[in-house]
């Protein structure tokens, strides 16, 4: 069973994504901001992180940068999920090491397809 860390502060999105992932047989852990995410990614070593960019305390880009600079977490793939879909945001996230970038809103089947794609690349 794949373990996914969802880093999101909006309750409706947390609920929808959690239902989607659990129905696909994945284990889901949730962090509500970047600070909590960094702690959980260290202690729980998820197979993949779904990361929002706009969050309290520590934003997603800073959390992504910290994950990719840490030898213990740098190889964990990160998919950014954000309402910010400007080319500059996407390029910056990808330059920092994101495996993929999805603009909100998205359909559950799109999310699952991107997760499967990223995880299959990871296992090669």
Question: What do these coordinates show?
Answer:
47% of the residues lie in helices and 19% in strands. By secondary structure, the protein is α/β, with parallel strands linked by helices. The chain has a single domain (3-122), classed as Response regulator (Rossmann fold, 3-Layer(aba) Sandwich). A five-stranded parallel β-sheet has the order 2-1-3-4-5, with helices on both faces. Helix 1 links the parallel strand 1 (3-7) and strand 2. Helix 2 (34-44) runs parallel beside helix 3. The longest helix has 15 residues, at 108-122. The model has no long low-confidence stretch (mean pLDDT 94).
Question: What descriptors fit this protein?
Answer:
124 residues; alpha/beta; Rossmann fold; five-stranded parallel beta sheet
Spatial separation of the terminal alpha carbons: 18 Å
Mean pLDDT, all residues: 94
Q: How many distinct domains?
A: 1
Q: Helix content range of the residues, please? A: 40-55%
Give me the CATH fold name: Rossmann fold
The poorly predicted ranges are: none
Report the principal-axis shape: globular
The overall strand count is 5
Give the CATH architecture. Answer: 3-Layer(aba) Sandwich
Biggest sheet: strands, sense, closure?
Answer: 5 strands, parallel
Estimate what percentage of residues fall within beta strands.
15-25%
Strand arrangement within the widest β-sheet reads: 2-1-3-4-5
The helix-strand sequence is EHEHEHEHEH
The CATH superfamily is Response regulator
CATH top level class name: Alpha Beta
């Amino acid at each position: 069973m794949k373990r996914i860390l969802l880093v999101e502060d909006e309750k409706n999105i947390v609920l929808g994504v959690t239902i989607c992932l659990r129905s696909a047989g994945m284990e889901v852990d949730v962090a509500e901001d970047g600070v909590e995410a960094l702690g959980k990614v260290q202690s729980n070593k998820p197979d993949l992180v779904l990361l929002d960019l706009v969050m309290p305390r520590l934003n997603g880009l800073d959390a992504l940068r910290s994950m990719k600079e840490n030898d213990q977490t740098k190889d964990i793939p990160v998919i950014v999920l954000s309402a910010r879909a400007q080319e500059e945001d996407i390029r910056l996230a990808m330059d920092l090491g994101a495996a993929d970038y999805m603009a909100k809103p998205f359909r559950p089947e799109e999310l699952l397809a991107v997760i499967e794609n990223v995880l299959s690349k990871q296992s090669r």
